[in-house]
Amino acid sequence: DAGVIQSPRHEVTEMGQEVTLRCKPISGHNSLFWYRQTMMRGLELLIYFNNNVPIDDSGMPEDRFSAKMPNASFSTLKIQPSEPRDSAVYFCASSVQSGEGNEQFFGPGTRLTVL
Amino acid sequence: DQQVKQNSPSLSVQEGRISILNCDYTNSMFDYFLWYKKYPAEGPTFLISISSIKDKNEDGRFTVFLNKSAKHLSLHIVPSQPGDSAVYFCAAISNTGKLIFGQGTTLQVKP
Q1: What are the chain B neighbours of A33 within 8 Å (beta carbons)?
Q2: Considering just the CA atoms, what is the radius of gyration of chain B in Å?
Q3: Contact between B46 and A105 using a beta-carbon 8 Å cutoff
């Protein structure tokens, strides 16, 4: 099992550019989560999907952020336009189902730097 | 509004001694808690969890204690090993199934 796969691992871009982060969850998992890690706020949940359907996007900071899950094996998080304050590590995680006691498995993260 | 708080950003202990990492929460509706461990350049990995019906859960060198009246939980690692050096995140599961994380505590275990 390859675990949760994220790409790219590192992204450096200039302010105003569009950024797309990609995630492949563990096969058979039906919940997918996008998190952002910063020094100030730790790990924050941005959005999560159950069976490819967005359930809670209340953590998405602004309209510049959008996420899609076109199928069970792929999700994207897009930032357009990007700003320096978006610089952070973005993690994708998946689990068998959302709810009590269901362990989430995290990918290695994408370190985003917006200049 | 931080519902899960880890007030100590860092902790340093000697190898072989006990490490105690603390976590406080504000929402009394939380009923399941987890600890995750994170090494540099890797994603967090699940370590241990506890349900609110228990006050203690043990797994090898790791024990989590829950004090519901104080809305406090702690992770004990004994004996601590240099390989335990990592960032530890406390998390609670909300009634909507979301994981709410604390800011993390960086543990350094000195040989």
Answers
A1: 99
A2: 13
A3: yes
Interface test with B, best of A58, A104, A105, A111 (most B CBs within 10 A): A104
Q: Taking residues A101-108, what's their average pLDDT?
A: 84
B46–A101 CB contact, under 8 Å: no
Give tens-digit pLDDT for A41-79: 889 999 999 999 998 898 898 899 999 999 999 999 999
Which residue from B68, B47, B74 is spatially nearest to B59, judged by alpha carbons?
B47
Write the DSSP symbol of residue A46. Answer: E
E strand residue ranges, chain A:
5-7, 10-13, 19-24, 31-38, 42-50, 53-56, 65-71, 74-79, 88-95, 105-106, 110-114
Other CB atoms within 10 A of residue A101 CB: 11
